[in-house]
């Protein structure tokens, strides 16, 4: 029994090491600041560790973990929705540690984009992050968000439309495949 637990621990450790940058990026885009993202990933991994056998047996363990993270984020901010959606000043956004393979981290206007993203309602923000930054299919995003494909399409379209309407983003950052 001890060998099986140790093997499970090693498998979990390898999963965390391999997926940490992507989990942090998703959490950062959802939460809007580095410390909140770290807390979100940590609490998600705590929940996942307890059920690791079930998670590891899933068809797509990363999708399972992403769903746990999205649910944790939604629970955390449900009560403070108005405060969460309020525009933040420059001191309210802590810089993310850059992922050299992430094209968004290389954009000069990253701060403007993150501020704009923070202003979207949670479901629109989730849909935009999962579809355009995590590059999930509509079906994968729907599974992660616990909604229909149509809801993902609608929320992503509304979110992208709101981002396109922000003057600071026009002409500087590609949003949803267009300038």
Automatic annotation (TrEMBL):
Stated name of the protein: SigE family RNA polymerase sigma factor
Keyword Transferase: no
Pfam families registered for this protein in UniProt: Sigma70_r2, Sigma70_r4_2
RNA polymerase sigma factor 70 region 4 type domain ranges (all copies): 112-163
UniProt entry keywords in alphabetical sequence: DNA-binding, Sigma factor, Transcription, Transcription regulation
Residues in RNA polymerase sigma-70 region domain copies: 21-80
InterPro entries: RNA_pol_sigma-70-like (IPR039425), RNA_pol_sigma-70_dom (IPR014284), RNA_pol_sigma-E_actinobac (IPR014325), RNA_pol_sigma70_r2 (IPR007627), RNA_pol_sigma70_r4_t2 (IPR013249), RNA_pol_sigma_r2 (IPR013325), RNA_pol_sigma_r3/r4-like (IPR013324), WH-like_DNA-bd_sf (IPR036388)
Parts of the chain that traverse the membrane: none
